[in-house]
Amino acid sequence: MSGQVFDNSRIYTVQEYTTPDELYKDLIERVHKYHPSDDITLIDKAYKTATEAHKDQVRKSGEPYIIHPLCTAIILADLELDKETIVAGLLHDVVEDTILTREDVERDFGSDVALLVDGVTKLSKLKYQGNKVEFQADNLRKMFLAMAKDIRVILIKLADRLHNMRTLKYQPENKQQEIAKETLDIYSPIAQRLGISKVKIELDDLSLKYLKPDVYYDLVDKIAIRRGEREKFVEEIVNEVSAKIDEAGIRAQINGRVKHFFSIYKKMVNQNKTLDQIYDLFAVRIIVDSVKDCYAALGVIHEMYKPIPGRFKDYIAMPKMNRYQSLHTTLISSTGQPFEIQIRTFEMHRIAEFGIAAHWKYKEVSDGKHPDEGEEAKLTWLRQILEWQQNMSDNQEFMNLLKSDLNLFSDYVYCFTPSGDVKNLPAGSTPIDFAYSIHSAVGNRMVGARVNGKLVNIDYKIQNGDRVEVITSQNSRGPSRDWLKIVKSTQARSKINQWFKNELKEDNIIRGKDALATYCKTHGIVQANIMKPEYMEAVIEKYGFHDFDAVYAAIGHGGLKEGQVVNKMVERYENDHKRQMTDEEVLSGVDEASKKNLRIRNRGGIIVKGITDVSVHFSKCCNPLPGDEIVGYVTRGRGVSIHRTDCVNVMNMSEIDRGRLIEAAWQKGSEKNEQYLADIDIYATNRSGLLVDISRVFSDADIDITSLESRTNKQGMATISVSFNIHNTDELNRIMKKIRTIPSVVDIERTTG
After folding, report:
1. Is residue 97 flagged as an active site residue?
2. pTM for this one?
3. Mind giving me the DSSP string for 518-530?
4. Closest C-alpha to 20, from 67, 52, 58
5. Is 425 exposed, middle or buried (0-12, 13-18, 19+ CB in 10 A)?
6. Is the separation of the CB atoms in 445 and 439 below 8 Å?
7. Is the domain of 515 the same as that of 590?
8. Active site residue 202
9. CATH no. for residue 734?
10. 444, 446, 721, 722: which one has the fewest Cβ atoms less than 10 Å from its Cβ?
11. Tens of pLDDT, residues 581-615
């Protein structure tokens, strides 16, 4: 029996004065605590190799570079990983940052370590760019493929990221924000999915510290003000519980803690509450020997304190998807102060802290094995991601599904199959989601459902404890497109979309070909000129498809607009056929009177090639912004008109008019003192409050809307056209990214003429 108040938000804290040798000694001590073998030959060799390879390198903090791989290895040791992973942690930067090669690592440390180092090296080369969906999606696809080859790759990358976050103060502010956002968007959710709460909690808190420093330090100060009072309260609860649990003859370890900052911040935002209104700031954790003891301890606790109705969760009987298990109950103390108690076994606690890392048993190299057989089967989420990757050629759809899946993960309902098996689904799921969670064939043949023995509508919201039975028919024609508006889980949405793509692929290809041909015809574009292999390959690469039939199919089912495809190919065609013109040729069509009126005004810092005395204005058809590729058009009597290169009016110019185009570029720093008009069209499923949510994005960013027009078709799809002033494309992309997160928004695009 033990009782204490503790804060385990960090795995390991590095003192700035610690030397590499002291850190290495600490690493070995940590490995010895859990590893049965005393042989550290391979680890020692890796330390010496990494020290030599990085000997002339220093970090931005000024400390020797070897400190970073050492701290990465220490984090991995605290997760009790095998020696090969520790070695790879020490060597994870040598291939990328030193003269050593993958072959050198394999020769000296074996193929297992070389595979891990190579996997981490490839992940390190991936750069997060939040405003480039295709690039980001491609990076994430590679990340999940690396995880599939060996899950330890991502564990090393998480340890690497955690130490980088701990030393983020040495980076410039813009880099701090970029790295913190990437961490919160990608690495923290992955750590949560893999169940590694020790890493996830610290990544969250450190991300909050740099993304919202005012919020973070305000929380730190407010919690510190009453820290003594709160610790005294938790200590009293721990002592009371310890005494009663001991009386009941239950062997237990009992600890108390204050919840971590990011968790508190999320509750304040989601529930619109102040810190004083968050009643479960405190948690007491009871760790016992067996599941039987868990429920026995729960009985003792509920006899001691009054439980708050609706705040009991049994994650032992119905574990979370990342295999987290505990009993959670929120109670009222004798002083009226609410607090939470979590009850779990020691094994459950290990899984909760270390997640998938808890199953990576240490093995000797000669063993030739990795985790216990069957552990791979527990990585169902990773297998699901890989299945999506194989089935999806559309990067935008892949990103939407992935982000939706990560966001939905925290809130689930639990229900039962007719045979009593437990299914956990996102909150708000329907019988359709349930059907597809069993098998895609069950979902595709579903015609109805029963819940608790009664027929229900297919849009029924499943509740905790429901017993769900799917009614299928061989005569079913398959899912309806309306189901996409009903389902909640990304798995169901993915499988429904896949059914339509597979079943109707030939029809979609035909429709796509017709749509593309019609677009070319109506816009005066010679289709034969642009349907060259190199131009088609540019489209395939840009949108992440496997072949051009997939492009046709995407156009056919509405996932891609034919204008986007044609404009991309026309752009490549024009680049190949552009003729450099002399200044005299450019102005040959301008009469003498007009030439006299050409004066320098250069609004927005536009540089027009070959002309230094010219009147410049921006076209209203496409409203170019700094960051856009632009081109000039020599008008008759009004100087040079600046267009975006993807402007429809430019694309559809006659050969004569194309002779009046001239190269133009943005002057460096042109966006600092100028604002420019931007136009976007937002496509969304119409609902109450949609315009308010969209307007809030602009008001929060302190951006003035100059006009807003909304129209809704018979199918309930709204098109909202918004004009506003902005500095550059980076700012525009940030606004568009925030709008995409608004519920019911389907797509956004800029006007192109």
Report:
1. yes
2. 0.50
3. HHHHHTT--HHHH
4. 67
5. buried
6. no
7. no
8. no
9. 3.30.70.260
10. 721
11. 334 444 444 444 333 333 333 445 677 766 656 67
